[in-house]
């Protein structure tokens, strides 16, 4: 006969496999009933393989698609980070999923995003054998965290940490300046908007640090955080980003 103590030990391992069958769910995009948060058809439509720059994850032209190659922009002006893994492009229909997480509190999407990032990280020869020593989310300012109630980057980082077997330090970096959202700032002013916005609050000397974020557009935020990490002694910085805005 099961005791309460025995059940408390067994149920956490059983629930992830049992819940999809016990609690019907619908696809976050098309609304059709499916066992997960996104059905297979919508996933195939939203997540399409791209050959990308290993450093900034912008798509590479076919002639530049050699494995492990940097794009022309990264060759001309290398960012502070060393590599970027992305799950998909920030465009329809995938962008709607990111918005559901960020502004609709669609927290069940976070582990699904983490699964996509894990698969991409382990699939790419440039990152599969070079996992970080520690993961950290891009921190939110206190005001925005209070308004939203959660940090979407941390919600993705938690399951990704477990999936990759990499330690998570949610407080490795803090945002010391309350900056305007990058989406509300003119592209030419985005670097200045986040300059000196971050402080590193844990030892990172000699470490490979993985930074987790939801969307990468101009990359100025990630570059500023990577710069702070390098100044603190980090040996390598890799980005794990749910969606990359394609260049116009």
Task: Kindly describe this structure.
- With 248 residues, the chain is an alpha/beta fold.
- The protein starts with a helix and ends with a strand.
- The protein has ten helices and nine strands.
- It folds into two domains: 1-46, no CATH class; 49-244, 3-Layer(aba) Sandwich (Rossmann fold), CATH 3.40.50.
- The strands form three sheets. The protein has a five-stranded parallel beta sheet with strand order 3-9-8-4-5. A two-stranded antiparallel sheet has the order 1-2.
Task: Describe how the helices and strands are arranged.
Blueprint: H1 4-22, E1 25-26, E2 33-34, H2 40-46, H3 72-76, E3 83-89, H4 94-104, H5 109-123, H6 125-128, E4 134-137, H7 142-148, H8 152-164, E5 167-168, E6 173-175, H9 190-194, E7 198-200, E8 208-216, H10 220-231, E9 236-244
Parallel strand pairs: 3-9, 4-5, 4-8, 8-9
Antiparallel strand pairs: 1-2, 6-7
Helix pairs in contact: 5-8
Instruction: Fill in the CATH topology of the largest domain.
Output: Rossmann fold
User: What strand line-up does the widest sheet have?
Assistant: 3-9-8-4-5
Indicate the percent of residues in helices: 25-40%
End-to-end span in angstroms? 63 Å
Structural class category: alpha/beta
**Low-pLDDT residue spans:** 14-23
**Sequence of secondary-structure elements:** HEEHHEHHHEHHEEHEEHE
Number of helices: 10
Shape call: globular
């Amino acid at each position: 006969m099961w005791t309460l103590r025995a059940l408390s030990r067994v149920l956490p391992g059983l629930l992830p496999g049992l819940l999809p069958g016990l609690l019907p769910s619908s696809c976050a995009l098309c609304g059709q009933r499916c066992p997960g948060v996104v059905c297979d058809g919508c996933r195939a439509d939203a997540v399409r393989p791209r050959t990308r720059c290993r450093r900034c994850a912008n798509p590479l032209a076919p002639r530049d698609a050699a494995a492990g190659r940097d794009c022309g922009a990264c060759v001309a002006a290398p960012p502070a980070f060393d590599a970027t893994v992305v799950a998909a492009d920030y465009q329809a229909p995938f962008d709607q999923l990111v918005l559901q997480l960020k502004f609709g509190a669609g927290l069940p999407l976070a582990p699904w995003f983490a699964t996509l990032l894990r698969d991409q990280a382990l699939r790419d020869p440039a990152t599969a054998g070079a996992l970080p020593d520690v993961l950290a989310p891009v921190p939110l300012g206190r005001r925005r965290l209070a308004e939203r109630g959660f940090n979407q980057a941390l919600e993705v980082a938690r399951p990704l940490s477990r999936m990759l077997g990499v330690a998570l330090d949610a407080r490795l970096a803090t945002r010391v300046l309350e900056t305007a959202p990058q989406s509300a700032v003119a592209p030419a002013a985005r670097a200045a908007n986040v300059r000196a916005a971050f402080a590193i609050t844990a030892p990172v000397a000699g470490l490979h640090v993985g930074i987790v974020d939801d969307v990468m557009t101009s990359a100025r935020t990630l570059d500023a955080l990577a710069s702070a990490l390098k100044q603190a002694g980090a040996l390598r910085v890799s980005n794990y980003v749910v969606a990359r805005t394609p260049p116009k």
